Amino acid sequence: MKYRPGGIIHSYQKYDPISFPPPTQEPPDLVTPAFEQALMYGNFRELSEEELARAVRLDPSQIAGLGPSIDFLKALLEERKRKILETYETRGVQKKSRKAFSQAAKDVRVPQKLEKSFQQAIRTEQPYLLESIWYRIGDDHSAAATGLLNVAQRMSEKHQIEELVSKYEFTGNESMTVPKALEIKEELEKIDELLRQLEEASKTAQIGLIDMDMLGEFAQPGDMEQLEEMRRQVENLIREQAERQGLQRDSSGAFQLTPQAYKIFQGRLLERIFSSLAPSRSGRHTGDVIGEGAVELQQTKPYEFGDSVANMDMPQTVINALLRQGDERPLRLRGDDIVVHKTRNHPRCATCVIMDMSGSMRYDGQYINVKRMALALQGLIQKDYPGDFLRFIEMYTFAKLVKPGEIIDLMPKPVTIHDPWVRLKADMSDESISEVQIHPHFTNIQRSLQLARQNLINADTPNRQIVLITDGLPTAHCEGEWLYMLYPPDPQTEQATMREAQLCQREGITINIFLVPSWSQSEEDIRFASRLAQSTSGRVFFTSGNNLDRFVLWDYVQNRREIIS
Q: How many domains does the chain have?
């Protein structure tokens, strides 16, 4: 044919124009799940491929057409379940299990002193009572002990069949033996578990959640091969994206967090924190500004005595002289002609963040919020205020400086003493005593403030502050070389802490306290935090824990705006 009407006709199989993922679709977020796992458990081990696959949520459209439909597999399992329920009846097997249990109980002869307990165990059908009688017999090989084991087995079978009847509705006519009923129960529970896994996989594309061995008992070999191939493709996708996002694999195949991953995670934290405020207030727009707009010019003001002529606005100054003098030559400048640019002072800030890692921070996972805040603050300063001074201090029975890369490893100290009344002291000048021998879970605010003051005192800026994040009163302090651990909190510890706060106040260091909630928090905790902050003209913030990062970062940014002159 010389002329083909319509040109070339293409046919696309398995193409859905609505749900088909475009080439520009964002890759799955692998960094955030990895960091959340590390924040909760510490970076004591790396993520395996399976753990990473289970943590990552994909768009289900990204795996569409790669293997057998998940809906097809669900329909296959539901059809198998329907056939089982329509085939069997359970009235007969219930009678059989009751009769077998009753007969086993009649065949047992227990010692006379245990007869009453045995009858109670049979009447109430309590396995733990039978177990207690079996231990009291004392002879594992006696006829009574063997008979009790048989009764316990028949009781367990009876309970399982009752569970089967209450959980599933059978409508068939075919009777079952007790072993057959238990086999049917196991098969139905497998089907329910697979249906749950498939339902979750259909929402998150987490193919790794599906038990392939269990599914192989019901699906055809060809379908299983396709599903296994789809699982491998998803794993390859996750592995490739993980390496692109800074999750580096070591020689053993596990994933480790690299500086690139830190940068990505901190950027996402900042985006989440600053996205809640209006752009007009924050000035942090995530998109490009497109369209017509005015050019922002530097602000000027008339020259005043003392202003630096290096900031003179020459064009405007000459224009003012021409407007005043006209065409006269030579052009002579006067003081009222001169205009200078307004200047803005960007001072440096010096901050020490004290992170409470005592034993009480484990409750409700508050330590996770503290570490997330520290990473977000470090990312903010590194990105927007690179000249600022920032240090992190871990607070427990002692206090020590922590590098930013070590924050994710921090964990609350284990509680090693559970007495309700503790009065301990240790001479730390004694060479035979080391830190590892001291109970680590106490809260030493005094020593932490001292370490922060020693780091801030030499900072070349007058803007110095301590950010103290804790959940309550101090329970440890130092006096010379002696370390005191006192619980419940003692006035002696509070007085030592307040003395250190006074030293901070003399150096012009402000203490801002972020009080996170705790099950043991009382009015006295709040009063102490207020006294400690007011002694240095600081403030107390009451946080909900999970919003701690937002509170700290916005307070830091707002304080810088107040300092700028």
A: 3
**Sign, Cα dihedral of 458, 459, 464, 469:** negative
Query: Does the residue 489 lie in any domain?
Result: yes
Tell me which residue range forms the domain holding 365.
350-564
**Which tens digits make up the pLDDT trace of 333-389?**
888 888 888 765 556 789 999 999 999 998 888 899 899 888 888 888 888 888 889
Tokens at 229, concatenated:
């191939």
Report long-range pairs for 146-151 (Cβ below 8 Å, ≥24 apart): 147/104, 147/107, 147/108, 147/109, 147/110, 148/108, 148/110, 150/104, 150/107, 150/108, 151/101, 151/104, 151/105, 151/108, 151/122
Tell me if 276 is assigned to some domain: no
Same domain, 438 and 451: yes
- What is the CB neighbour count within 10 angstroms for residue 66? 17
**Buried b / exposed e along 277-305 (16+ C-beta atoms within 10 A):** eeeeeeeeeeeeeeeeeeeeeeeeeebee
Tell me the backbone φ, ψ of residue 341, rounded to 5 degrees: -75, 140
pTM: 0.56
Q: Are 338 and 438 members of one domain?
A: no
List the structure tokens of 373. Answer: 């805040």
pLDDT tens-digit profile of 181-212? 999 999 899 889 888 887 877 776 565 566 66
